[in-house]
Each structure stands twice: as C-alpha cells, then as structure tokens.
Amino acid sequence: MPETETTVKTVTANLKVYRYDPEVGDAKPYYQDYEVEVEDWFTVLDALIKIREEIDGTLSLRCACRASICGSCAMKVNGEAKLVCKTKLDSAWSPGETVTVDPPGNMPVITDLVADFKPFWDKVRQVKPYMQPTGPVPTAEYLAPNEDMVHLAGVMNCIMCGACVSDCTVLEVDKSFIGPAALAKAYRFVADPRDGKKKERLGELNGDAGIWDCTRCMQCVEVCPKDVDPMERIMVMRDQAIEEGYTGTSGARHTESFVNSVRRSGRLNETRLAIESMGVMNIPGQISMAPVGIKALLKGKLPSPLDHKIPSKAAVKKIVEKSEETSK
Which pLDDT score, from 0 to 100, does residue 4 have? Predict the structure, then answer.
C-alpha cells in the first residue's frame, strides 16, 4: 500500500505586534505589522518565533515549554489573555484579518511582549502561599482525606501564567487588589485540612483589597487555560469568612442586604442596598456617599428607599429560602 501524503496548507498571516524598546531615549510603545508564511497547524507562538528567527531578530518574547505547562507565554491575543503556545493561529485569524498581539495586561512592560511579573509574585507572597500547621508536631506522615485533595486538584492546576491577572477588570482601576491568581492560591490553603490558620487567613483576606473587591465579571474564568475558576474560589471564601464571624465589612453587609431585600419584596432595593452596605451607623461613610446620591436624585435616577413589591413576591421568596436550605 502506498503511503498517504499529508497536504500542509501554507498561507500568509498578518500580525500586529506590540513593540517597546526601553533603551531608546523617550521610547514610546507602538505596533509593528508583520506578514509571515505559516502552516495550518501553527500556533500564535509558532508565528511569533518564526518572525523573530526569520524576519526580525529584535522582537522579544517569553516562552519555554511550548506545551501549556510552564505558563511563560501568556499574552493578549486580539485583546484577551491567552497562552499563545496553546492558541491555534487559525482560531484567532482568518485570511484578510490581522491578529493583534500584546504583552499581558496589568503589569509593567519590560520590552515588547515581555512583562515584569514582580507585582504578580508580590501579591502571591502576600497571601502566605505555604502550609501553616498548628498543634503538636506529628509523629508520622499526615495523610489528608482523599476527598479533600480531589476537591483541591482543580485549584492546584494553576500554572501561575498570569492570564487572569492580565485581564482582571478590578486591577485595571485598583492596583492594590490582591487579584484572582493570589486569591485562588489562598483558597488552596484555606481549604486544605492540614493548614491550621484558616480563620486567620480569612481575616486577612476579608480586609481592604481582598475577597470583597472582586466584581464577579467572570473574565478570570474565561481566560484561565487550566480551568482553575478563580472567581468561584473567591465566592466560597466570602461565605467562609462570614461563617467565621467576619461580618463587619461592607461586602458582608452588602450580601446580607441583597438577600434580605429580595426575600422581603421580591426585587432589589438599590437605595437601601447602598446605605446598608456602607453601614447605617457609619456616619462618615454615609456622608461620603451623599454627593453621588444628590447627583442621582437630580438626574431622576435615585430609586425610592421604600420597597416596591412585585406580583410574584411569594415565588421569589420561596426560591431564596430554598437556596438557603441547599447551601447549609
């Protein structure tokens, strides 16, 4: 039998690549267009490496394993964080279109597509990413229950690529936020039965720039190449923080006010939510919100603080009560 020949399709791809050279005086970032001959199996990383090796040796990028293991090659492709070794070029590009490649976001750019990950690692260190056992020194190996370790397997898949940090919408406006990667790493120890500092960890994460600053935009979930689901880990730690007695934060009060509002009237009362989240007796906080409230009132956008009940209130109340029973 004659061997079957495999036909490899070769096409010209157009890439617009972010460039920045800090060694040039008064350097400013710009985009450089490249045309490169690619084959149908090429990834975005394959195309970038070919540009560097055959077209422009000055292009800087970071990569290592080329197998979605090391996490080195996280970049933005058409505005969204990707591991470029895992991203097939034909999934991001069609003939006649241009693929735009940027360095990962929310971190300083060193040069071209290479970002400085120091802020990333500083936040990971902030959550104390190591076991903190308590009690007497064990005399034998500590065997964790299998079901607990199976539960942690997903979050331990994190390869620290920084894709979730790159696209975090909170970090875009608040650099103090601990961020999804570090919080997912924190959960890995909060949920580990061998760690003895669960309450202390949750207390630290319950403060400013911690678990309550996530806006649940889902972007970290969308871009994670290993399905770690950082946002879900953050939501679980919020519940655990409240269970541990950390209820004196605006986040905890927001949660309670939200549920009570829906249970009471079947819908959300935005005005009471804002007041109760800040703390009814928090006079300085209430005064700080006054300008926003006045502007909303003048624009006719301030909802009534009185509950506006809906016809299906009873049905919504049953749903709330059922969900609370299920979560217990």
Answer: 56
Q: Confirm if 300 and 246 have CB atoms less than 8 A apart.
A: no
For residues 268 and 274, the answer to whether their CB atoms sit within 8 Å is no
At residue 209, the pLDDT reads 93
What lies within 8 Å, CB to CB, of 283 at 6+ separation is: none
pTM listed for this prediction: 0.86
Contact yes or no for 101/62 (Cβ under 8 A) = no
With left for phi above 0 and alpha for psi between -120 and 50, is residue 115 left, alpha or beta? Answer: beta
Q: Domains of the chain (ranges plus CATH)?
A: 10-115 (3.10.20.30), 118-243 (1.10.1060.10), 250-327 (no CATH)
Radius of gyration of the chain, Cα coordinates, nearest whole angstrom: 25
48 in Cβ contact with 56 (< 8 Å): no
When mean pLDDT is compared across 44-48, 167-171, 281-285, the lowest value belongs to 281-285
Q: What is the pLDDT of residue 137?
A: 85
Closest CA to 323 of 254, 273, 255, 276: 255
Q: Which DSSP category does 287 fall into?
A: H
Interhelix angle 180-190/118-126, rounded to 10 degrees, is 30
- How confident is the model over 219-245, as pLDDT tens digits? 999 999 999 999 999 999 999 999 999
Question: Hey, is 140 helix, strand or coil?
Answer: coil
pLDDT band for 125, please (50, 70, 90 cuts). Answer: very high
3-state secondary structure 254-267: HHHHHHHHHHHHCC
Element (H, E) at 276: helix 270-278
Of the candidates 65, 67, 91, 72, the one whose C-alpha atom is nearest the C-alpha of residue 13 is 91
Q: Strands of 98-102's sheet, edge to edge?
A: 30-39, 10-19, 98-102, 74-77, 80-83
